[in-house]
Amino acid sequence: MAFVPDDVDGYIETLRSGECISERSLKRLCTAVSELLVEESNVQPVRSPVTIVGDLHGQFYDLLNLFSPAVGGSPPQTSYVFLGDFVDRGHNSVETLSLLLCLKIKYPGHVTLLRGNHESRQITQVYGFYDECVRKYGSANVWKMFTDLFDYFPLTALVENRIFCLHGGLSPSIDTLDHVRQLDRVQEVPHEGPMCDLLWSDPDERSGWGISPRGAGFTFGQDISEQFNHKNGLNLVSRAHQLVMDG
């Protein structure tokens, strides 16, 4: 069935009113978004100006507040890169993700959705998203639609060839952006390896590579970041994955 823009506007209106859209509508939405995402790169190019947003974790009303004119503004007036972890922990993961998918369909060039470590089948069964889907829709069908879609989300983005955006951090298996481009991302997040590291690693005050206390990914020092930036002609790495008080 052809996807028409009128459908998306209706979905957005429903979501903004505090209701979930139907399972049938979500199926159409996920199919349409997957057709967009499959064309995107593992290192998705993004133009400036753009606002980069960290973990949302189901905080739907914070997302609506972000889109208000007094804060960040709404697409297409403001372009966004979201660094993943849309779901789990918060109480409105379904609405948060649904709205972002609607905006991706309506303004594909202004909304970039990256994969976080919580965009995974295993993690979402532990931290709340699975249970929320079953509670709101009466079965796991919607959870399966969403988690199948997660496999298509780009792993990283590159703003004006200078700012490397990703959820987690760097990997000892990855020296260049071309290494990232060559990864097969259409799969569940592995327990180890370069794709896992991009979604799980953290910077650390110690130099070099270290074992991550998370049990996945690595820690990496400032020296590692500087080497990676120099080799790839980057100004900085923009990432999420850790709570920063007051912004």
Summarize the structure.
The chain is an alpha/beta fold. The chain has helices at 5-16, 23-37, 60-66, 93-106, 121-124, 129-137, 141-150, 177-181, 194-200, 222-232; strands at residues 43-46, 51-53, 80-82, 111-113, 156-159, 163-166, 202-203, 209-211, 218-220, 236-239.
Architecture overview:
This protein is an alpha/beta fold and 247 residues long. It contains ten helices and ten strands. The protein has helices at 5-16, 23-37, 60-66, 93-106, 121-124, 129-137, 141-150, 177-181, 194-200, 222-232, and strands at residues 43-46, 51-53, 80-82, 111-113, 156-159, 163-166, 202-203, 209-211, 218-220, 236-239. The strands form three sheets. It has a four-stranded mixed β-sheet. β5 (156-159) and β6 form a beta hairpin. The longest helix has 15 residues, at 23-37. The model has no long low-confidence stretch (mean pLDDT 96).
Q: What is the 3D shape?
A: globular
Query: What is the number of strand segments?
Result: 10
Count of DSSP helices? Answer: 10
Unreliable runs: none
- Cα radius of gyration in angstroms: 17 Å
Assembly context of the chains: single chain
Secondary-structure-based class equals: alpha/beta
Distance between the termini: 43 Å
Question: Portion of residues in helices?
Answer: 25-40%
The mean pLDDT is 96
Major beta sheet summary: 4 strands, mixed
Could you give the order of strands across the largest sheet?
A: 1-5-6-10
Summarize the helix and strand pattern as letters: HHEEHEHEHHHEEHHEEEHE
| Share of β-strand residues | 5-15%
